[in-house]
Amino acid sequence: MSDEALTLFLPCAAGVQDFLADEVHGLTGLAGQDLLIERGGIYARGRWRDVMRLNLHSRLAQRVLLELAHAPCESEDALYALARRVPWEDWFGTRHTFRVDVTARGSAFKSLQFAALRVKDAVADRFRERSGARPSVQTQQPDVRIHLHLDGAHASLLLDTSGEPLFKRGWRQDKGDAPLKETLAAAMLAASGWWQPARRAVAAQPLYDPCCGSGTIVIEAAQLALGLPPGGQRRFAFERLPLFKRDEWQAMKDEAEAAARPAPAAPRIFGSDVSHRMVDFAQRNAERAGVAQAVQLRGGDALQRQPPCAEPGLILMNPPYGERIAVAGKAGAGKETGWKTGQGRETFQTATLRRGDENSPGQESAHDFFEQLSQHWKTHFGGWTAWLLTPDTRLSARLRLKESRRVPLFNGPIECRLLRFELTARRPANAPGPAA
Ligand SMILES: C[S@@+](CC[C@H](N)C(=O)[O-])C[C@H]1O[C@@H](n2cnc3c(N)ncnc32)[C@H](O)[C@@H]1O
């Protein structure tokens, strides 16, 4: 069983599939017909070892699913028959608990819940027929999750080898109002070119997030720079399956640990945030993630902070946007917001920027934030490249900069773009003009 060829499906956020294919290729060597790209995921033809390896190392996949059946299926009875033919007993036993989740795209089934129920019945009936007993259903924290995917006239049955989604790395226990998913932060690192997943390499350039919040971007970057696997601190559903071999898994984890690189003498990855409470969160998260030595985190307004190092690098950020997260600091105006800190109360001037609210009071200061940010960057960050993730279609206009690249990425259901801006230094007013 453990050396059989398996069909794996790795779902990811829409827009991330090409980077994920690069990552899977870099981690497993799979290519060509063994690696097929779909919108929102990739299919890979691998072995059990690849399942463990992808769970441990993938930063872009949401899960690693094992496809056990895929067939045309247009009625509940056909679905029941399909699920009954799957040799579930090869994967789990009657002492395990399970649940069935369902997703659909253009399916003809009237009730998705009923479709899931038919699969559950088929699994239970197959076990009962073979052993006289059946595994029980458990909706909270089951041992085994079965995914039913209905796509047009086809049904797929997949076994989830991950359990908790892979963006849950285990280190983020402190988070702000609008934390970025770890998988999306990793996608930003890949889309910006700072991380090259196919080569399993990161750029030598310094990296800076001036609105770092709980530190997701900088921590993902630092783990990559140190060669730490994203799944090194968590458990996976496959560890509960009968074919799981603890010694093989431990050897794979030991190998990953041995490949880790020491932190450089001076950090090359920097984060700052106007909220000192966020900086504390980011610091604690960095410690749990094992990267505290590789990042430098500071408090401060993005409109005032100077470059964190002499050499120009890459700014990567998702700036404040929307109702939950407001621009604060120098450009903030209007309503005052208080955030609790360990020492007492921290107050900021804030202004919220949201769609369809362009002319309301306070908007001017949120607009000001981006205008002032680009002025600040032109004055102090000449030679740097800035990448900003935003759902705001007018961000370039607000910054008064023209983007040199735009990569569509989805933040859950929200369509965003990652925009690249080359920051050229503004010529001081008294500098000599070009020779006549
Ligand atoms: C969308 S959140 C970033 C979330 C972050 N990527 C994370 O994963 O937690 C925006 C952050 O910008 C910060 N912020 C707002 N105004 C700022 C300013 N003027 N200077 C620096 N940071 C600011 C907020 O405190 C917030 O943490």
UniProtKB/TrEMBL annotation:
InterPro entries: RlmKL-like_Mtase, RlmL_1st, SAM-dependent_MTases_sf, THUMP_dom
Tagged with keyword Lipid metabolism: no
SMART domains to which the protein is assigned, alphabetical: THUMP (SM00981)
Domain THUMP residue range list: 50-161
Methyltransferase listed as a keyword: yes
Coiled coil: none
Taxon lineage: Bacteria, Pseudomonadati, Pseudomonadota, Betaproteobacteria, Burkholderiales
This protein's name: THUMP domain-containing protein
Gene Ontology MF terms in the entry: RNA binding; rRNA (guanine-N2-)-methyltransferase activity; rRNA (guanine-N7-)-methyltransferase activity
Superkingdom: Bacteria
Organism, as annotated: Ottowia cancrivicina
Keywords on record: Methyltransferase, RNA-binding, Transferase
